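Before going further, learn to read the protein records used in this course. The integers have meaning only within a learned vocabulary of local backbone shapes. The record below shows the convention in full.
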Amino acid sequence: MPDKHYILGMAGHIDHGKSALVQTLTGTDPDRLPEEKARGMTIDLGFAQLELASRTVAGMHYQLGIVDVPGHAGFINNMVSGIGAIDVALLVVAADDGWMPQTEEHLQILEYLGIQRAVVGLTKADRADDLAEATARLRARLAGTRYADAPIIPTSTVQGEGMDRLRETLAMVLDETPSPDDFGKPRLSVDRVFSLTGRGTIVTGTLTGGALQREQRVVVQPEGITTRIRGIQSHDQELERAVPGMRTALNLADVSLAGEGRQGVARGDVITLEDLGTPSEIFHAWVTRTSRGAAEALPLKHATRIRLHHGGTQVPARLHLVHGEQLVPGEGVLAQIRVERPLLVFMGDRFLIRNWARSATLAGGVVLEPHAVRRHYRGKGQVATLQALQEAASDPRLTLRAKLARCQSWPRREMLRQSHFSAVQIDEAIEGLVQAGQLRIAGEQIVQAAWWESAIVEAMEKVVAEHQENPHLPGLPLTRLRADLALDPPALFDALVGEMSQRGIVQVGEVLRSQSHLPELPSHLATAGKRIRQALADSNLKPPTRSDLAADKAANEALRFLVRQGEVVEVDAKVVLLATACQQAREQVRQYLTDHQTATMSQLRELLGTNRKVIVPLMEQFDREGLTVRKGNVRSLKG
């Protein structure tokens, strides 16, 4: 039975024993920097591994990657960069100190980032005057949060107490924790980057969303640098493949560390696949503020400059509220986020908002639209779409409907590409909505069914109107209909023409016409048309010259009409014949050459009873059509 992989994130106030607890649980000291050793405090992220046996499934083991984080307020940026991709939190509170400012902020961060499960480690239990009272105070602090019923485990790293119970509790929580999602869209947010002699550039992070394999082509976002995975490790073990929930180290080929004036990979970058979307500068989101500490919290005002934390990075941004001018504690609002450096965000991603001074966590949010535009973000249509996306949550069908309600067509390959939905989920949602008559497939586009039907009906009505207004013309020019409809993207027009062909509208050359449409000469040209038909019928293959037939404007227009309709054939610039006469000549030539194999121009002229000014261009036309082939002075059937 394969092991399951999860990430455990530490949280809690400085000096409450997070690192000591990690070391006692795993035997690994997560404080790796000399400065951390010297100062006796965690400054940057630390990592360890713990293997646990499932309490409910025999033979099942959990490989638990542990991310230790700084507890000092001054290093909250480092804390956030490590906690964004965890599955379970271990919130640490010292029994002697109790609940402290960073305990509160770390708890709010866990909630904002949507961490569903937590275990509370009540450390330094040997220092508590009254352990039961300390536990009760801690439980009271958790009231009203999603961790109100989280197990509280008293521990002492000095005496080694509570460690077995903590391991058992973590295993029981993991038994109830779904495996990290694998929806085929891997992202590794880089939290460490360094270079090793003989190996090159190494990046580490927690892998989410999908698997990565050795030798796979990947891209470093937001810079868009393409590279290749030369090697993969997880906790010093060489791997061919890394899966979601793994602490993962990647050895990247042909990419350097970013430096001053040098492009490369840096902390906060994202390693992903090349076709999984593009970085954003503006996106839409649902932003909420907790009511905890509301008495001290100031309103979060419209257009406030903020620090936005996403994955392993933080960027300057502006928060533009869709409703109202401020966001107060305990409320939520739709918002447009304008970042000052591009971010690769997916629909459903969580992020954190801190104030510009980096002294307080203000809010948290969920991405609703990875790409947005500045204009009209407070318009009714935009607001309705965002509200629908918020309500859609994890339902791909509802999400598709919400997006197509505003933008009636979307490239199928891009639809929900930057989301937490898998390709299978997206395809199933599309097919379900197609069967329900709500969506249609138009070429490479997905289209809103009602809008698409109205576009087809409008186009067909334009063709019919053209027949009524100009019955002598063959149909509606494609160029005019394309301009009138102005479909976006232009390729939709070709799909629309294809749909019309199934409903009795056919394309003939560069025009569209109804199958039942037979162009008629308008009344003012009818006399001229009758005269031309009669003259050509009487003369057969010895027709009058074109200039004689089209001696005036009306006759010229009538002749052009007969040519467009195929009733008259232009043999060359001077010679025209009735189509019936031309077809009869074609069959006579075919039969003669079948019987005699070859014929001279004189023989063919006599055969058809015509003259040289007709036979020469007529035979040249038959050559172009592929009926005959000329060899010297004789012709034979081609092929």
The mean pLDDT is 90. The first strand starts at residue 4 and ends at 12. Residues 449-469 form the longest helix (21 residues). The chain is about 35% helix and 30% strand.
